Each structure stands twice: as C-alpha cells, then as structure tokens.
Amino acid sequence: MGFPKALLELQGETFLDRLIGLFAPRCRPVIVVVGAAAGTVRAGSRRAGEAQFTVNADYARGQLSSMQCGLGAVPPEAGGVLFTLVDHPRVKPATLDRLLAGAGPLRIPRHNGRRGHPIYFSTALAAEFLALDPGATAREVVDRHAPEVEYVDVDDPGVLEDIDRPEDYRRLVEEARP
Question: Model confidence over 81-133: pLDDT tens digits?
C-alpha cells in the first residue's frame, strides 16, 4: 500500500482505532502487534491508551510471527483469544458478540459459506500456534482441529474484506460513503 494499513482511514478514524474501539468493550487486554513503522502506527492511534502495544522485531518473517508475538503477551488467566488482521476494519460488533458467545474451542465466522476474520480460539490452543515453525501458517492448527471448529454464520461481509491493494481501499471508502 505504500503506507501503514493500520493508519488508513475509514469514516474519520483509522483502521486500527476502529478495531480497538470494537474490541476494547469485549476483550481485556486488547493487544496490538506492530512491526514495520511501529512508532508511526502507535503515534497515529487516538485509542492507543485502550490497547497494549507489542513490537514484533521479526515482522519480516510474516503474519505468523506477529500472531506468535501477540500470543506471547496474552495474560495466563485469559480463557481465549480473538485474533484479527488490521485490514478487516468493517467487522460488526454483533459478529464479535456471537463469536464470544460460542462454545467451541475454535470459532470462525462464515459469511455466505466463506470463512473470515476475526477468529476465536481457546488459550489451550495457543501452545500449538506458538510451536509452529516460521514457514508454517496458522491454518495448520485450524486444519488439525477441523472437527472441533464451530463455524458461526454471520450476516457480516466485513469478515471477508481484506484490504491489500489501493483499489481495495478505494472501493471500501466508496462503499462506506453515506
């Protein structure tokens, strides 16, 4: 994108601030993992005080390394983790509520038959995510636990939105206009 995705704006707030605002009433602590441009991202957040920032020094290793970094900051007494990517800024509050209300150790939202983000998993699974090799993906743990996955069908296209390219962002902004 040529710019930290966390600081892209949608309807007057950054992607990161939208997500902190969505998660903070439901999760304690909200852990934000930053890598490249960590100082810029933190300084650009108006809700930084509502989150715990953790720096992934190995961010160049990819998404799994950031997930593992965040899991290292989860308090031992936590029962579960809601994990999302910063480029899914339009997830509805009701989707988080439904994920948190589920019963399975691994809960994945599904919209129109497609899996999305955020995902919920029991902290009992955290050790498996932490044990993955750098070249692996989190999907390996999900696949290993396929019989235990609780798919939560939601009327929320935001779980599928993945803003990776400038044209994705332009479309998102256009769709969000009143």
Answer: 999 999 999 999 999 999 999 999 999 999 999 999 999 999 999 999 999 99
Domain borders along the chain are: 5-176
CA gap 145, 125 in Å, rounded? 9
**What is the CATH code for 5-176?**
3.90.550.10
pTM recorded for the entire structure:
0.93
The CA-based angle 42-44-50, given to 5 degrees, is: 55
Residue 135 pLDDT: 84
Task: Give the 3-state DSSP-derived string for 94-130, with helices as H, strands as E and coil as C.
Answer: HHHHHHHHCCCCEEEEEECCEECCCEEEEHHHHHHHH
